Each structure stands twice: as structure tokens, then as C-alpha cells.
Amino acid sequence: MEALLSNVDWTEIGWASWDTLIMVGLSLLFSVLIGLPVGVLLFLFGKRQLLEQPVAYAVLSFVVNVLRSVPFIILLIVMIPFTVMLIGTSLGVAGAIPPLVAGGAPFFARLVETSLREVDRGIIEATQAMGASVRQIILGALLPEALPGIIAGITVTAITLVSYAAMSGVIGGGGLGDLAIRFGYQRFQTDVMVITVALLVIFVQVLQMVGDRLVLYFSRK
Amino acid sequence: MIVFDQVQKSYQVGGRAIPALHPTDMTVETGEVFGIVGHSGAGKSTLVRLINLLEPPTGGRILIDDENITDYDAAELRAFRRKVGMIFQHFNLLSSKTVADNIAFPMKLAGIYSKTEIRERVQELLARVSLVDQASKYPSQLSGGQKQRVGIARALACRPTILLCDEATSALDPQTTQSVLKLLADINRELGLTIVLITHEMDVVRRVCDRVAVMDAGRVVEMGPVSDVFLHPKHPTTRDFVFESESIDSQELQEDLQRANGRILRLTFKGDSTYKPLLGSVARESGVDFSILSGRIDHIKDTPYGQLTLSLVGGDLDIAMGAFEAADVHVEVLR
């Protein structure tokens, strides 16, 4: 057993796991904080919706599409000057967060838009008929009704961010991905590669399980 | 009082205006149950949504208690809508809120009620719609009839003066429909609420409405007290609706009449005359023989009525007709 995992430095693995956790956690937080309002706006500006705005919708939708169509590995590189400007470095855990958010927020925004569209139009109409303002319709009816969908969206986004965070190892992003590339790939330490991948698999499994539980808890349908 | 003054509505589809409601005049009196009946696509859904401006009109004025609501700004409109309850075919309850929270929702939106006021009002409404035991359940745990009762309680929460019902019983089975209609009738009587309800079932109109408008292709084609419209339908669309609700096949009826001898009369009894033992005495006095070709006896809201189609042979027809009219029976000569 010892010989089989001779290259594995468990302290290093521990720190790398912690870094991944931080990267995913913080980038998920910012992705939700940015993506949720953007998703709500995308929904409201859409065709035949509460604040129909074809021009604003087209602009917002274009920006989201651009960010989503750039492969994440390219986005990581394109973002470097911007990241340096924003937080002083493009390396390590902190340096990985801006590109992760740039990848995660538009992704999450689309998921929010979709889950809001799935709310029965009749509920919006009923809330309007009660004399609710647009703000009240969003906060009082739309978001609570779409909550299970939004939580499922957060789960999917979190899992996407786990894989993005691993990718950020390529440009020196830190975390399990960084470990896998530096030791597993560049030094041919297959045992390190296997352990990091196994940890990522476990991480994703746990996220999915927790997400599914929450969705179930909040679904009243 | 709800007054429509040349109200019209059209939709822009591909640069062309498609009329949904042709210019319409209509008055709904305070405290009455006003039915709007029509096939799907006739414009009745549009018409009821004009009353709370969920659909803004493209022409004309809508006056509610002498105020032109089409002039309201956004804040005035929101305040006005709180005084107009609405219930829907598919209930449109919030699935994420409990029964009690659904009923409390419009009061919370209004922002002018204290927590205690809301709690007490919710209890009162739960009792009115007999759902006290279901207060903490979610809509998905309720039956269709229970959901609609929650819808009604929610619509009443802010003590509206008008209740709009959009096909409120169309998704319910006949028995549940009965109980929901009874609840609506009780509310109308006890609270003096004006109710405007749209339906495609003449039977719903017959049970609860005072007056009715019949719509066809974006126009009101017939309007009046339910007993007039129901017993003496004039427009072909109205006739279709009445025949449909009475399960009368108009072709079959014509064939039956062909086979009968003598004069054919249709007698309409309303109110007290329904119970008078009239046919026998008229037959004795005038010497006519009659056979009954078709007949129905039922209620329009609370008024009993009967309608008989008779063929009369021999005797003195004038005396018979005179006797019927003297007894307040409406006589129509079909042949």
C-alpha cells in the first residue's frame, strides 16, 4: 500500500483539497450573486414578459452567450490581464476566482432564466390581479415558486465550477487540478493523479446529493 | 357598478390588428351575479380581464363606481386591483406556500394590515370556505374543489367589492362544481359582492346568475335577465347553448314535431305558475285534447320554471290560449 502510493504527500493533498473547496465556494457565491439578478433581468426583458425590452434583452443575452461560448481554458488565458488588474495576481486561489466567476455567472444566469420561465404564467397573472408591483411579483411569487429549479441550477453550476477549478491548474490556479497537472501529468506520478481524480469525484457526488436533497425539500409540487 | 362604454380590444399580430372584443356597451349592477357565456375564443376571457385591466383596452372607457379606471396611474391601479378579487380555472395558487399563506398573500402584498389582522382574517376565511383543517397543507395536497375554495378565500382576503371568476368551475367535476357555485351564491348574498363570471356552461349561468351576456366572435350578441335569455333565446348562439345544456337535439326535436298532429304550442311557466294544476282544467274548459311532446322542469337560480311543448287537437283553441295567458303562462305558437 505504502509502495503503491509512494509519491502521495497527504499534507499537500489536504491543502489542495482545501484550496479547491475555497475556489469553488467563493466563485459559486459570486456566480450566484451576479447570475441571479442577471437571470431575473433576462427573464423580465424577454418576449411577452413583465418588462419586455427587446434591445436590453438582446444586449444582455449577447454578453451571456459570448462568455458561455468561449471555451473555459481560453477564458482563463484571456482573463489574465483583467484578473491582474482586479486583484493584483493571476496566480493561486485568488487569481482563479475571477475567471471562474466569468465562466459560472452567465451559466447560472441562463439556468435562472429557464427556471423562472417554467413558473406557471397563471401565477404571475393572479399575483398581478392582487395589485402586486413588479418587485413584489418577483420577490413574493416568482422566486419562491422557482426556488427548487434555482437550487438545482446552483448544484449544476457548483459541479461545473469544480471542473473549471481543476482546469485553472493549467495557468497556476492552485487546488487539486494544479496538483494533478504538476505531479500527475508533468512528473508522471500516476498515484497522485488517481487520488486527485478520486477526490474530485467524491466532491461532485456530495454536491449532487446535497443539491438533490434541498430540491426535494423545497419542492411542494 | 361596472360600465363599459364602447370598450374594445384588439391585438397586434404581425402588424395587423386582430379584434378580440368589438366596441361593447355593458352595465353590471352592484350586487348582481353577471354571467358571460361563450365558446372558447369568443372573447369572454378578454372581457373579464378588461375589468381589472389585466388587459388594457385599445378603445373606450371602463367606469367602476363612476370612476374611469383607464385613467389610473400604476399606483392607483394597484390599489384598485386590491378591491377586485379574481379566481381562475386552474386556481393559480402558489405551490410554495401553504393554504394559510396563500390566503394571507394578497394582504401581505397590500402592506396595510398588521400581522394580527392578517392572522384573524385568514382564520375567518378558512372557516368560511370550510378548510380550517387544511390550513398548513400545501396546494398539491388538496383536491380540485379544495384548491378552488382556497382561491376564493384568497380572492376575498382584502374585502373586495367585485369578484371576477374566470371559468372557475370548468376544471371541476359536476358535484364539486355544485358546491363551489353554492359557495359563490352564498358569498354574493351575504357580502353583497358583485360577481362577474365567465363560463362555457349554460348550466352554471342558470344556477347562479341574475343576468347574462352571450358572446360570439368578439361581440355580445344577447344580454338580459337569465330567465329571459334562457327560456326565450333569440340569437342562434344562445339557442345552441341552451339546447346543449338541456341535452336537446334540435334536429330530433324538429322530427318529433313533424309527426305530431294539430297546433303545437310551447308553454313557459315561471315562479308560482309552475305549480298550478293547469293543463287538466284548460283541457276540460276548452275541450282540446293534448299530448306532451317535450317538457322540462327546473330552477333558474331560485325561481322554478317549466317549459312544455304540446300538440293540441280539437276543442276551442282560443279559449285554451286565453286560459293559459290568464294564468301567467307564456304561450308561443310553434305551428
Descriptive overview:
The complex is a heterodimer of chains A (221) and B (335). Chain A has one domain: MetI-like (MetI-like fold, Orthogonal Bundle), CATH 1.10.3720. In chain A, 79% of the residues lie in helices and 0% in strands. By secondary structure, chain A is mainly α. The model of chain A has no long low-confidence stretch (mean pLDDT 91). Chain A is elongated, with a radius of gyration of 20 Å. The longest helix of chain A is centred in the first third of the chain and has 36 residues. Chain A has 9 helices and no strands. In chain B, the strands form 3 sheets. A 6-stranded mixed β-sheet of chain B has the order 6-7-8-3-9-10, sandwiched between helices. A 4-stranded antiparallel β-sheet of chain B has the order 2-1-4-5. Chain B has 2 domains: 237 residues, P-loop containing nucleotide triphosphate hydrolases (Rossmann fold, 3-Layer(aba) Sandwich), CATH 3.40.50; 82 residues, ACT domain (Alpha-Beta Plaits, 2-Layer Sandwich), CATH 3.30.70.260. In chain B, helix 3 packs parallel to helix 5 and helix 4 packs across helix 5. With 335 residues, chain B is α/β, with parallel strands linked by helices. Chain B is built from 12 helices and 14 strands. The mean pLDDT of chain B is 91. The radius of gyration of chain B is 24 Å and the shape is elongated. Chains A and B meet through helix 6 and helix 7 of A and helix 2, strand 6 and helix 3 of B.
Helices, strands, pairings?
The complex is a heterodimer of chains A (221) and B (335).
Chain A (H helix, E strand, L loop, with lengths): L9 H36 L8 H16 L2 H7 L1 H8 L4 H26 L3 H9 L4 H34 L8 H10 L4 H29 L3
Chain B lengths: L1 E12 L2 E13 L4 E6 L5 H8 L7 E6 L2 E2 L5 H8 L2 E5 L10 H12 L4 H14 L15 H13 L5 E5 L7 H18 L2 E6 L2 H7 L2 E6 L2 E7 H6 L4 H10 L4 H10 L3 E8 L7 H9 L2 E12 L2 E11 L3 H10 L3 E4 L2
Parallel strand pairs in B: 3-8, 3-9, 6-7, 7-8
Antiparallel strand pairs in B: 1-2, 1-4, 4-5, 9-10, 11-13, 11-14, 12-13
